[in-house]
């Protein structure tokens, strides 16, 4: 890719927009958002169904674009749970029920449903007690949704549930209720992205249509227009979510650039589509899906343009080499994202995707071809072939996930480490552009080594994260030298582990208990060979424990009143009323944790746990 591409004003405007939104924007309901009707007990709202229904055990759930509430004009979106009703895409519904805030527990490193919806611009839920169709969708939308439903019906009737879910996921991004073990295998093999209708699907449909049109002998202009029409129809059938719309817009830009004799259409399409999405949906900048699809597409564009596969190589070898480069660039650019969101990295993903990505394209074509044949009562022609391809795909996924090293647990990366990593990756992706690489080498190396050093220099010496879930408390304590401690055993060990991983540590130096109650067995499973400090058993108040430069003091239980007056419960009674507290000393600084991790302090600094939130104290 020519270095001048990096000088485009739109690229720098997009970068400025992303930085500005990241630091200065937080999703919040607008003045007329349905969120402001929460105080009303029962409401009747009207709105249009904006997503295909997600089937749950007790309801079918959709996103609704709200028009009015109790006859008053309203805006925004709402997440609707509709028992005993099947919502249809683009229908306008009248829903009676009670509004509520989405369930949310903000434990650092753990999934928070309320924040997840907020990043999509949704701040309210409703459980419908009465639902009716106020206005059916226009006929084009009815045709599209009927076609989608019929495709999924045919696949579900023709193949076993696990294979039908793969076919639906690869073709339309609709995997349905998938077996948890199979879903985990997709994650560990690095193939989970193939079960989502993504930009790659739009590109495949566009290229396939172009190939068929070329074989028929259509003119270049007719070929491109027909390909864009087919790709647009596929985008709508597959759900028209952000990655698909972005990919389709890129295809439009690429085809336009081709007609105009320019080769920058894909890159320019990526920039324009991302810019427009962030202008109209600024909360998208916080969505993991948006981040991953943008980074992956950008990496593939740069890598495949800069690292050319020799034209002398055999066609088949060139094909797999390009798949390898695309997979490698995607894996590299998404490594921090996967690590910080899922806390695991698929080691076999680089190899598995070389086989599974092209096979997924074959499956996509076969699944649709099978549907067409089925309409003509000729499904038997492709049934065996499609069944075999689905079975092979599933077998390969399970095989690659079966290796012990298929997926490695990883702790989250810090901001400084991520900045340094992307600086080095940008330099590596542009090494073939020798003159440009020489110009950016020094700045990239300065960021590569300077960002972690600057972060370490400004990092607090001690950080205490107070965790609370429905009045059950715990804490994670981090020190600047990399040491970490877990305090309390009331919270789910899996959730405590996620918080620990989010702070950048895989294993704690010790687990600190506040009473002499037995340790839940899962703690030993998740944190093997970790020292457990259990007061009034093997350890007593007054004991000190050295962990390198960090000293942990075990003290009598410390408590505080609502007014903030602290008091200490000394003496051992042998009952469940006995508890302990802890202090941490590092580089002359001291921070203490008391009352079952319900408060922490250091000098004048003080923090109190809050229900269903994470509160940080930095010293």
Model description:
It is a single chain. The chain is an alpha+beta fold and 619 residues long. It has 4 domains: 34-137, Nucleic acid-binding proteins (OB fold (Dihydrolipoamide Acetyltransferase, E2P), Beta Barrel); 148-259 and 312-409, no CATH class; 415-458; 462-618, Metallo-beta-lactamase, Chain A (4-Layer Sandwich). It contains 17 helices and 22 strands. It has helices at 9-24, 113-118, 139-158, 161-172, 180-188, 199-216, 220-237, 242-259, 265-280, 288-306, 315-342, 349-375, 380-401, 415-429, 434-458, 493-502, 521-526; strands at 43-49, 54-55, 60-69, 72-73, 77-82, 92-100, 122-135, 344-346, 407-409, 462-469, 472-479, 484-487, 510-512, 531-533, 544-547, 550-560, 566-569, 580-586, 589-594, 599-602, 605-608, 614-618. Strands 15, 16, 17, 18, 19, 20 and 21 form a 7-stranded antiparallel beta sheet that branches. Strands 14-13-12-11-10-22 form a 6-stranded mixed beta sheet, covered by helices on one side. Strands 1-3-5-7-6 form a 5-stranded mixed barrel. Strand 20 and strand 21 form a beta hairpin. Helix 1 packs parallel to helix 9 (265-280) and helix 11 (315-342) crosses helix 12. It is globular. 34% of the residues are buried.
